[in-house]
Design a protein that fits this description.
745 residues; alpha+beta; Maltose phosphorylase, domain 3; 5-stranded antiparallel beta sheet; 4-stranded mixed beta sheet; elongated
Amino acid sequence: MKRSTRNALTVAGLLAVLAIIYRSVFSGQVLAGRDVFRIFFPDSAFLLESLRTGELPLWNPYLRLGQPFAATLYSQVFYPPRWVAVVLAGPIAAMTVMQVFHSAVAAVGVFLLARQLRLSWVASLVSGAVFGVSPMMTDLGIQQNVVDAAAWSGFIIASARTAAIQPGAAAMARLAAFATLSLLAGSPETTLWQGVVSLLALGSTERRGVRAPNEPGATRWRGAARVAGGLALAGALAALVLLPAAEFAMNSLRTRTEGFANQRLAWSVSWPQLLSMVWPLADWPRGPYWGEDQWFILNQFLGSVACALAVVGALAGPRRARPFAAGALFFALLSLGRHFPPAAALLHVPPFSLFRYPAKYFVGAAFCVALLSGFGLEAMGRLSRRIRPSLLRAVVAFVGMGVAIGVAGPIVHRLPMRESAEAGVTWPLLFLGLSTVFLFILRDTFARPSRVRHALAALAVLELVAAHYLLTVPKYSDHEPLERTSAIRRQLPESLEGRISADIEGPADPTKVPNAVSRTIELSRDRLIPNRFVEERLPALEGYGAPEPVRSDVFNLAGERSVYDLTGVTWYVRNGPPPYADLELLQTLEDGTTLSRSKTALPRAFLVQKAQVTPDADALKAVLDPAQPFRHTAYIATGEALDRPACGGSARIVDSGARRLELEVNACDESYLVVSDTHYPGWRATLDGAATDIHRADFALRAVRVPTGPHRVRFEYAPLSFRVGLTVSLLALAGLVAALFFRRK
């Protein structure tokens, strides 16, 4: 068969599999799982708003009194496919478009890598399908940034192998480009394991005529240096997001709170979950949300046939398969985290200690298993030559499969397995049994190894498609309720003064509340939870997502009336009655959600004539004081104390945007202007055009000292971390372009 015909069949086959798996998309449904509706819908809406207004989306003013946006890696602010999807499909459907696109990219990338590893067309097709459209990858769409970053794995490893044996700027540029896409997708843990696999894969390269005769290891080390250089160049190209992300991490609860440090090993893969990559439902029911089982990857099934082929590839495959066998074993054990003491120890060592949730490394294991399945298919073609054709053996194998299926259930029922394991045990026995039957039948009928490979490949892909029906993945929701304007928002003024407070959490334990997740998604925009108020352009006190800004746990989530009043919370949205008796009830939805209004909230900006320099503990105590002393006194962390007679004054907002705020101030005396926006590095202030200091006031807010009289105060967000990162990225890009130009010249 001609290569062009095979390529056309590959594309057609991939599109057919995608159409079957994502068939619900054709009926207007969209992916809207756990973090899709909580994070990616609101982030996409804000990104689209910024693109339309031409404003660089570095700061999100709607979330937690304002917090960095581009520095939140999963926001994917500089990831080109996210721009295209959001602009063309809108913020809701964009996530479905992204998922389907990246599943295809993942499959094609692994297919091309397998071809580079000299696997046959059909074996490469199986490898691509196992990684790109396995239930693990499709159901992982709830963590879109992980899928997006992992999708480039095949291209990254292939480029690394090429760079190792081909000196020059072009090969390094390809490696850097794909690795940069992975970093910009917003899952640095994924890029980390991709880098590890890239270095492991150097053991599978062949250097024809390159190795120096007297230096057997020199070429290998030079190849490793080029790969490391390409990955480092990718880090420089992505510096415009990595440096702000590092700054945000240093100013978050992740690095400043011991409790969050202890979450490094949270969501470790349990042993039953590891078994579920071969045995569907072996890990169900899972334990509590933060218990022994991880809840990051909801489905880890890769296919019984694929995993069996991977074992064959690891044991009987060529030497070039060994690095991927080592990678599969390493990342599978690493994903066990606290359930495997050596992994737990390694995860406390940099660079692994920089991240949490060991379950993320299972995706790296799945990538290596996918490649090994292709090697295993090739090996089975070779091993089939040793099988003596026998229709009788095929019949015996078929009967044996039936007997095994019949007795397996009662046996598993007596073992210390989970409840659903008994139902799932039929699956691997069926498909592995059919594989054995095919070996005997096809050898008896055709006596050609290629026929065996084609049959096993078809069975492996068929199993992946069937598994989506069995496991009912991925999960979908109707598009219309996710898109329509919130019923709560329609009751609020178009130009909103003050902030809202909303119940941001869904069900605490979705395993114990039937249909709670789907019901929460359906009502999320009406309830404005957890971040869907961003889509309605409503600034809020609360917020959801990582990393959490420092002090947000004891300030934004304090739940005290004094904090609500200080931060200008005028509107309360609750899943139940209003939280305070003096609030004015405005609306009650059918599900019990209420909207109420307060008349005691302070404006966003106000003047005080007294200030005390106090430690954080005292400032927080004053903020939580029911007497609300902050109405006349600013409790500042830096600056000079002030004690003047209270006289009021006025502050009026004349211009505002995501990254700017301008006010006209009329101070009746020496005063501090307090603005109830988050105090964070990168904000600058000017007083009548001259730079002035910003002080942290009332534990978490901003304040500027102003003299008597009328003034113009302007705040602007221009973080040094972004400016330095942008400079590094531009210099790296310029150097790369120059190297390519001079090479061609």
